[in-house]
Amino acid sequence: MGTVTSLEGHRLARRSRGASGRVAPPRATLFFDLASPYTYLAAERADRLFARLEWVPASADALHAAELTEQGMRDVRERALLLGLPFVWPEERPPAVRGAMRVASLAAERGCGAAFVLAASRLAFCGGFDVDDPEILAEAAAAAGIGLGETLAAAGDVGRDGPIEEAGRMLLAAGASRLPALRVGRTLFCGEDRLHEAAAARAAG
User: Fold this and answer.
1) Contact 34, 180 (CB under 8 A)
2) Segments forming the whole domain that contains residue 149
3) Is residue 15 part of a domain?
4) pLDDT in tens, 13-32
């Protein structure tokens, strides 16, 4: 007697395959907080390493992360130097980013999260600018194709804070200890120094 094939299983398998007939790579999501300099260090590489990467703003406060010490600040500079990236501390440490995070949530909804995060994090940690300043925020949003009116409306929308904080709590419950964090399929990789490990895991399927 031949083997009976489940039609539903066959349909699911077909949906998971790309045009080439290969199984599609697992979904990859990058959780970030614009207040963290490590988001800047990650953003410069993440978009190149991962096709169709989903960008999700998440509050690092929910992870109860320790305050950045003098040694921690030196570690950030050394890491930037190792990666060959320019680095400047904003005057406020950590920088105020509540408005910028709200705009980041809008950018993520529109599929232009990468462009916004790259622009905002460069302005903060490469230029030392206050990304919550309306003019600076508008510049970052323009790089993502978001207009001034929409930017200012999103920056003042307190309703966006809930999902951002909830994303942080979800990560804490999943065992995350720091941001950025990359979820590949069901596996969570915490820290920008694990980007290549996460990319390898995604490539392996």
Assistant:
1) no
2) 26-204
3) no
4) 444 444 445 556 788 999 99
Pair 76, 38: CB distance under 8 Å: yes
The answer as to whether 52 is a domain residue is yes
Helix, strand, or coil (residue 28): strand
> 159-205: per-residue pLDDT in tens?
999 999 999 999 999 999 899 999 998 899 999 999 999 999 888 87
Task: Examine the pLDDT at 6 and tell me if it is beyond 60.
Answer: no
Q: Directed axis angle between helix 70-83 and helix 37-49, to 10°? A: 30
In a domain, 149, yes or no: yes
Whether 153 and 116 have beta carbons less than 8 Å apart is answered as: no
Q: What's this model's pTM, rounded to 2 decimal places? A: 0.85
Residue 90's nearest CA partner among 151, 46, 34 is 34
| Among candidate residues 192, 198, 161, the one with its CA nearest the CA of residue 57 | 161
Within a domain: 108: yes
Q: Domains in the chain: how many in total? A: 1
- Residue 189, domain CATH: 3.40.30.10
Distance of alpha carbon 51 from alpha carbon 142, whole angstroms: 23
